[in-house]
Amino acid sequence: MQNFEFYNPTRIIFGKDTIPQLADHVPAEARVLVLYGGSSAEKNGTLAEVRAALGTRTVREFGGIEANPTYETLMHAVATIRAEGLDFLLAVGGGSVIDGTKFVAAAVNYKGDAWDILRTHGADVTGALPFGSVLTLPATGSEMNSFSVISRTETREKLAFGSPHVFPRFSVLDPTKTYTLPVRQVANGVADAFTHIMEQYLTYPAGGMAQDRFAEGLLLSLIEIGPKVIASPHDYDLRANLMWIATLALNGLIGAGVPQDWATHMIGHELTARHDIDHARTLAIVLPAMLRVRKDAKRGKLLQYAERVWNLRDGTEDERIECAIARTSAFFESLDIPTRLSAYGLGTETIDGVISQLAQHGMTALGEHQDVTLEVSRRVLETSL
């Protein structure tokens, strides 16, 4: 097992009727900006509960954060904070709103061009405004990690940053707030969490017994509840399990001390930036192709995945590997998530543009071995057609 440091300061407040506990965790003297996405938080009553919990604190609101939060929109939030002297942020929504809030928190007092936060992937972030979150869409794990992905409309870029300064102080997770989500968003959440786990698990054997078993348990749980959580939107236990699994998938625990990949995500980001495909759906396109192209480098873990997750023990190694990859694709398809670029009307003509963007962003040596060159990324995209 590799050396590691594990640090996660985020307090989780989980369960029904927990939004009133905001009163205990937002400082009484705070001047708060509540950030949210569209109208659903208002329609389903979540914003009303948040307002009631914040009581007599000074509160301003900023809505309209996109599903792929944009630099342009978020800089308007930064301007509001600076103009009104606000000092605490509260994200109400899914991973996109929380990601956007992390960027805003880091950008308010940043010296220089705020887009440099993304260009340097957060390396020069020295501080951030404190913030918390109320999660309404389980998917990204942003409610308990220090990472964020932001898009820039003007340049069609989508970049990530991370910093220990942008861990949420707390996150409220009430599974009942997911009951009214559209089916597409719930399915995306399942696929997103599944791929987060795979990026940390399916690399090469590194002796992380607890991490492997933990990851495999999370994968098995998602496979079991994925179709059910869509079919039964008001089943509290199913929604509660999905919400907690998605958080555990990317709070740092299963990735501690083991190699990580993330090449699927980097290619997926470029597909979203260029073609506006939902983030989780780009992952479902890229992951099976990535596993096929890199099956030799990942052979040991692919065989473990085949046996422990899909119970595949018969046949040759190559047959078991191919069957495991096929079942992965079938799982995504069972959620009505296509796994081919062609399903989105995209063909070979899109590949050069994606490769060009990867090159522009320095994504030329990806993966756990840094051996995913631009040529390998091209083969992955060709395989995903």
Automatic annotation (TrEMBL):
Keywords: Oxidoreductase. One of its GO terms (cellular component) is cytosol. It catalyses: a primary alcohol + NAD(+) = an aldehyde + NADH + H(+). It holds the Pfam family Fe-ADH. It comes from the Bacteria. GO terms for molecular function: alcohol dehydrogenase (NADP+) activity; butanol dehydrogenase (NAD+) activity; metal ion binding; methylglyoxal reductase (NADPH) (acetol producing) activity. Residues 188-363 form the Fe-containing alcohol dehydrogenase-like C-terminal domain. Residues 9-175 form the Alcohol dehydrogenase iron-type/glycerol dehydrogenase GldA domain. Its cofactor is Fe cation. PANTHER family: ALCOHOL DEHYDROGENASE YQHD. Belongs to the iron-containing alcohol dehydrogenase family. This is Iron-containing alcohol dehydrogenase.
